[in-house]
Amino acid sequence: MKKDSSEKALADFHAGQARNAAADANDRRRKPCVVPLDADTAAERAAIDSENDFVGKPIGAGPVMRCLSDVEPVSVRWLWPGRIPLGKLTVLDGDPGLGKSMVTLDLAARVSRGDVMPDDSRGDLPEAACVLLLCAEDDAADTIRPRLDAARADVSKITKLYARRDARGTFQALTLDDVGIIEAAIQETKSKLFIVDPLMQFLPAACDSKSDQRVRAALGPLVDLAMRVGTAIVAVRHLRKMRGSAIYSGGGSIGIIGAARSGLLIGRDPDDASGDRRILAQVKTNLAGAVRALAYRVAARDDVPYVEWLGETAHTADRCVYLTIVLLCIH
């Protein structure tokens, strides 16, 4: 009797092993879990789950893929055609004192009014939209609000993000690690432009800004956020002291401009002896053809500075950077 029991147990064991092997083989023959990273709606995700026979079943580890024949091509949408795409990261470089923040506030004012851009082009926003500011260097009361007023902004559509509140209700400083808080603020305000000024202020403390790998890891969630919500993100950055061509002159790792789909630079006009005229030039574009630089100067309205645009110019970002190198050598 014991022998019969042992033989039966052994037979059951081998039968179970065979069933498990067959199940594993079936699992390997199944299609992988194919989930597009841009599947934002519950309906689309449900369709993908149904297509892959994963409804009601746990999804294990494996590749996340989508055949490109299932991807519907779409056109790039622009906040400012050729310069600032919607749903992407744009980096704005420049030395201190040239009006980088004023340029971003001028753009914020135009978005809030539903107005044309400085070159009279109009982007893909159908109407006036909201703007979210994450600014560390300028006070809201004595600097940001007066400058927005001077730029004729609809300030009811512009919000400044200050901090995050932890579980105890204590305010904590924001960094790019708090992408969930940033997304919640963008969604709540329905903002189509998010300005980070300056970028280095909000990099996580553990992020070495000179490390390509760490910078890309820190910016990756922000780039994904822009794509997910369709908001244009403009990050302001200072130039480094040692500089070469414009694309290598921004502070920190080359990974910063590498993560951006568009790069702009502000510099002094090489032909203006007064030093009052500034240039906004293109450094990098991944999504459109090159555009001509624009000139501007900082004017004043009731003693509050604002940007006065002066039209197109043939100057380039590299030439503007070269001028600053010459001036640094002289001084």
What does this structure look like?
By secondary structure, the chain is α/β, with parallel strands linked by helices. The longest helix has 28 residues, at 2-29. The radius of gyration is 26 Å and the shape is globular. The protein has 2 domains: 20-70, no CATH class; 78-330, 3-Layer(aba) Sandwich (Rossmann fold), CATH 3.40.50.300. It has 8 helices and 13 strands.
Strand order of the largest sheet: 5-4-8-9-3-10-11-12-13
CATH classification class of the largest domain: Alpha Beta
- What is the β-strand count? 13
Computed CA radius of gyration, to the nearest angstrom: 26 Å
Termini separation (Å)?
102 Å
- The CATH architecture designation of the largest domain is 3-Layer(aba) Sandwich
CATH topology of the largest domain: Rossmann fold
| H/E series | HHEEEHEHEEEHEHEHEEEEH
Q: How much beta, percentage-wise?
A: 15-25%
* Sheet having the most strands: 9 strands, mixed
Number of domains: 2
Structural category:
alpha/beta
CATH H-level homologous superfamily name of the largest domain: P-loop containing nucleotide triphosphate hydrolases
Overall 3D form: globular
Oligomer: single chain
In DSSP terms (H or I, runs of 4 or more residues), the helix count works out at 8
